[in-house]
Task: inverse folding
């Protein structure tokens, strides 16, 4: 709600950032009241990877989640950009190698707006499935739903079902974190992703 930059200090205020830039100065900032968090690469011609996550503190047992969502929009996505949003186990600069994941993604090398979904349960790696939708300069709610069981993990965009995968190999010992990563392989583009909201719903609650 106030102007505040994420820190690379692990788990500061719940969120932290991993920044692989060397010469450049990407930003990861809440610009002010009601503006949400924005992760922005800068125009330095280098590879940059900016990840907003919980510092590899894995707070959620995936079998306890009903759903997890991001309300997101993008700008400046070009052919050198990849965007990943969802949940995963320990972070890796190559999002596809994260052992457990359920993501929405944009691969700018294929399309600068087409939105894909994918999942990996350590046994079945279901990659680059088209949602038939796009993500650009208007906020959309991207939700991963587990209420039908791990064999029917569902992906929704603004309330519409856009895809289904199976993560049936997961066990009670599987812990994950929210993760959003924007990266560019080079060039002087300034890709950015903004989040107006993030949330989770659990399969249990306290009280009557």
Result:
């Amino acid at each position: 709600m106030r102007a505040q930059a994420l820190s690379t200090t692990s788990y500061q205020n719940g969120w932290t950032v991993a920044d692989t830039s060397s010469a450049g100065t990407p930003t990861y900032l809440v610009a002010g009241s009601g503006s949400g968090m924005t992760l922005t690469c800068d125009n330095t011609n280098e590879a940059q990877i900016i990840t907003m996550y919980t510092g590899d503190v894995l707070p959620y047992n995936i079998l306890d989640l009903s759903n997890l969502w991001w309300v997101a929009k993008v700008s400046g996505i070009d052919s050198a950009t990849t965007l990943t949003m969802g949940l995963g186990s320990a972070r890796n600069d190559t999002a596809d190698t994260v052992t457990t994941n359920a993501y929405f993604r944009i691969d700018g090398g294929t399309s600068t707006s087409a939105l894909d979904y994918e999942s990996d349960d350590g046994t079945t790696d279901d990659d680059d499935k088209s949602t038939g939708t796009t993500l650009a300069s208007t906020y959309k709610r991207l939700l991963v739903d587990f209420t039908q069981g791990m064999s029917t993990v569902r992906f929704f965009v603004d309330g519409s079902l856009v895809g289904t995968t199976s993560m049936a190999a997961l066990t009670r010992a599987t812990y994950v974190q929210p993760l959003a990563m924007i990266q560019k392989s080079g060039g002087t583009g300034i890709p950015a992703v903004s989040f107006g909201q993030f949330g989770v719903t659990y399969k249990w609650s306290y009280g009557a």
